[in-house]
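Predicting holo structure, 2,6-di-O-phosphono-beta-D-fructofuranose bound.
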Amino acid sequence: MITLDRYILEGERAHPGATGELSQLLMRFGVAGKRIARELAVGGLTNVLGAAGTANVQGEQQKKLDVLANEILLETFDYGGLVSIAASEELEQPYIYSRSAGTGRYAILFDPMDGSSNIDVNGTLGTIFSIRRRLEGSEADLLRPGREQIAAGYILFGPAVLLVYTSGEGVHLFTLEPSIGEFLLTLEAVRMPRQGKGYAVNEGRSRGWTPQTRAFVEHLKEDDRASGRPYSTRYSGSLVADFHRILLEGGIYFYPADASAGGKASGKLRVLYECHPLAFVAEQA
Ligand code: FDP
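Done. Tokens:
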């Protein structure tokens, strides 16, 4: 049985100069994941489902669990002096950890509850995270290019709770064993198949897409055995869930620019909280 902590600590030994701080940081995401999983498991019983009655900076209605997951994550890094600054999809301003603002070596970014339309229907959800170095100790550290990430990953809350991460040496997958409360190594050095059989996109919004995007989707639906078409639609409303399928089975996820009324003119995914971390995982796999 290889627990997440053991795996990370043993990996650290391969880097003699390591301070162990990145290891602690990654393990803390595991702790936050367990706490969020617990809230999701009893959400229908503890009155934390439904709308919070507030909107986030993107103008989206927040669910109570968006807010709760955000609080859990912020609190998780509020001790130990590891993190100086955090940015969250649910916060308008960066969060400065006052006790470690000048000393914490890391800046973190997260989407606390991705796929939040799934909260009230017991659907799959995720938490996405990205870890960067603190350079200047200011907001600028959060806005650096994606290739400067030192680790990234996600926690998937489905029939099982999974933690998937990379620190630039492959992608590793852990499953929460609820009876002992530990994430156990399930797949090491995951490889994403070069080609898949499914595509994930909200096709209900296709009227707002460019003709090229519409043509691409039609192309995926054509019959052509040699190139593996037609593809099947697999869209869950949770990027983490769809991405995870693609990590294991191959395929395509996209959220294209949507020019229709109420659509997102530059697509919906947030580069810092969603695209950078998942791109790092995809590249490593
Ligand atoms: P969310 O509902 O939490 O905002 O982050 C964007 C995202 O989730 C993705 O997880 C998901 O794939 C997509 O939006 C769903 O958006 P649509 O309801 O517009 O399809």
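The chain has a mean pLDDT of 94.
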